[in-house]
Design goal:
By secondary structure, the protein is an alpha+beta fold. 23% of the residues lie in helices and 22% in strands. The strands form three sheets. The chain has a four-stranded antiparallel beta sheet, covered by helices on one side. It has a four-stranded antiparallel beta sheet with strand order 2-3-4-8, with helices on one face. A two-stranded antiparallel sheet has the order 9-10. Helix 1 crosses helix 5 and helix 2 packs across helix 5. The protein is globular, with a radius of gyration of 20 Å.
Length: 272
């Protein structure tokens, strides 16, 4: 599933070709939103918020896409051959000089921008780790949401993936963040002290920001998809297992580096 860094990179790639231009044609797959309503409107912004891509128009409408596991946005010149079959296009927006195509995305919504504050998904999102206006207030809110008593019995893995707590982290940066902070993925978020939670938020933000800024894309991973290979820090073989984080996902961890308090192999909830 594309994570916050990928969505922000996508928004940055689309915005120069869409913002300020008038929509000349728009179409969605049968049964999708009535995107013809944006034809003739000017695109005012293309923005990523967590794992959501938002396209806003000067007629008060807004498009939201969520790519889930398989979706992606492409940008083409008019008449250029698409890299994927047209049958997989869920949304097409044409402006002078560019065609933006969203392939395979399961979530495409059109709504009034003024309703964003009460949108059932957007209004509940936690602070976006890649928000350009990120500061102490956003960091404090992210920590507050993570340690909310309602999440106390969640594993730290599930809490980091909960977009209502903090937005933008997916399975890649969840695994990498926990490794960098030497935290057992099966530890409960309620068992971590405030300083540890604060470091988790800052490390996740740092890793996402570094990935977004890198011209070559993501740097080599420390544990993600490295099961059976030596830990880059201590040489112990990296392990993997399915973990229930709301949706079963693969967790990768170093059993030597990531031993939290009360979570040694003898008493951990993780697989042995």
């Amino acid at each position: 599933m594309p994570e916050g860094d990928t969505l922000h990179r996508t928004a940055s790639g689309l915005a120069p070709h869409l913002v300020g231009r008038t929509v000349t044609a728009a179409r969605a797959r049968a049964g999708g939103p009535q995107v013809g309503r944006v034809v003739g409107a000017t695109i005012t912004s293309v923005e990523a918020v967590g794992k959501n891509l938002l396209i806003r128009f000067d007629n008060g409408l807004e498009l939201r896409t969520h790519l889930r596991m398989n979706g992606s946005w492409h940008r083409y010149r008019p008449g250029e051959r698409w890299q994927r079959p047209a049958a997989r296009a869920r949304l097409v927006i044409e402006v002078p000089g560019a065609v933006a195509v969203c392939f395979d995305a399961p979530v495409i919504e059109l709504f009034e921008t003024r309703a964003e504050a009460i949108h059932p998904t957007l209004a509940r999102l936690g602070p976006d780790l890649l928000d350009p206006l990120w500061g102490p207030d956003q960091a404090a809110e992210a920590r507050r949401r993570l340690v909310d008593p309602a999440r106390a019995r969640m594993t730290v893995s599930a809490a980091l993936l909960d977009q209502r707590a903090v937005a933008g982290i997916g399975n890649i940066w969840r695994n990498e963040t926990l490794f960098h902070e030497r935290i057992d993925p099966w530890a409960l978020i309620g068992d971590l002290d405030d300083a540890t939670v604060e470091r988790l938020v800052e490390t996740a933000r740092r890793l996402l920001s570094r990935s977004l800024a890198s011209p070559s894309g993501r740097s080599p991973m420390w544990v993600y998809q490295r099961a059976g290979r030596p830990c880059r820090r201590c040489g112990t073989l990296v392990r993997s297992a399915l973990q229930d984080t709301g949706i079963p996902r693969t967790t990768w961890w170093c059993p030597a580096c990531q031993v939290g308090k009360g979570n040694s192999d003898g008493g951990s909830r993780r697989p042995v």
